[in-house]
Amino acid sequence: MNARCNRILVGQISGLFGIKGWINVFSYTEPRDNIIRYSPWRLVYKSTERTIEVSDGRSHGAAVVAKLKGIDDRDTAAALVGADIEVYHQQLEPLAPGEYYWAQLLGLNVMDMEGRTLGRLDRLLRTVANDVLVVEGERQRLIPFVQGQIVKEIDLAKGVMRVDWSPDY
After folding, report:
1. How confident is the model over 122-163, as pLDDT tens digits?
2. Running along the chain, 169 residues long, what does each successive block of 10 average in pLDDT?
3. Is 38 helix (H, G, I), strand (E, B) or coil?
4. Alpha-carbon distance 31 to 37, whole Å?
5. What's the half-sphere exposure (Cβ side, CA atoms, 13 Å) at 48?
6. Which of 135, 136, 161 shows the shortest CA–CA distance to 150?
7. φ and ψ at 78, to 5 degrees?
8. Cα atoms in the 13 Å half-sphere on the side-chain side of 103
9. Which residues of 24-39 are buried (b: 16+ CB within 10 A; e: fewer)?
10. In the chain, what are the domains?
């Protein structure tokens, strides 16, 4: 099994902050500054990977800034810009029944209530009204992620999501 299968992407190092090795982080977590709690990070950049501890971090306006252990100057930090930040699944907090991390849902086979395959869940989009499932199949479908009303069942073990959605929509 590929070691990356056990990790999920939670952000990316997007720039530098100051001269003492601090970095700007584009966080995919909600809330954004949760990314700081998931130390250590697995940085993946080009063909290299490295595990590194987060020594400090905080929200800074709409962004997140972080200090990584052993990165003490701007030049060393600059080499990390563009690196993806991954964490292991077991680092995430357990969720209540019926709650899911988006990363758990990606790749699920999406089926309608009659068992017809609509496609695979490629990604989710956050909107003001509700999140939206982007399902790739014979064509792309955008399905509101409304549990109970539209999303009827999620079975992670079987890799299936059942939705009350017509293939004609």
Report:
1. 999 888 888 999 999 999 999 999 999 999 999 998 999 999
2. 67 95 93 93 93 96 93 96 94 87 90 96 89 95 96 94 93
3. helix
4. 11
5. 8
6. 161
7. -60, -30
8. 17
9. bbebbbeebbbbbebb
10. 3-90 (2.40.30.60), 102-163 (2.30.30.240)
Question: E strands along 5-158, which residues?
Answer: 7-17, 22-27, 41-45, 48-52, 54-60, 63-68, 84-88, 109-112, 117-125, 132-136, 140-144, 151-155
Closest CA to 84 of 60, 107, 50, 53: 50
CB 74 within 8 A of CB 21: yes
Is residue 23 within 8 Å of residue 77, measured between CB atoms? yes
